Amino acid sequence: MMNMTSRMMDTAMSMPGMDMTAMNELVEACSACEQACTLCADSMMMTDGMGKCAAMCSDTADMSNTMMRAMLRPTGYDMNSMMAMMQATMTMCNACADECMKHADMSEQCKMCADACRQCAMAAQKMMDTMKSMMPTA
Questions:
Q1: Quick one: 20 exposed, middle or buried, by C-beta within 10 A (0-12, 13-18, 19+)?
Q2: What's the first-to-final CA gap in the chain, in angstroms?
Q3: Span 3-62, pLDDT tens digits
């Protein structure tokens, strides 16, 4: 079943060369990552020795939200900026996933968060790959 965001994107957005499926996958992955990171940060906040994990999860949640919102406003895309944002999102998601995996054996929240972060990073890479053809030439 198609969600509301997907339906709106299909009817309201038209960008020549834009892979709308990859775009939708990134929006969905960013949303899932934001939620997983927020929940993980909250659960780690009161656990001794988990300050770095909680902070990374909070930062990654913010980054994922920002990336998702930027993707939903394609008419204002500056391709260089969007590519840099996707690269930063991938870097933050991978760093957060690495940190969470250090605790995955004792926290199911951390394991799920790491999985969501990896999915978001993969979706960002896929979107970057599809947008390379849209980059302006010098």
A1: middle
A2: 42
A3: 666 665 555 555 666 788 898 999 999 999 999 999 999 988 887 888 899 999 999 999
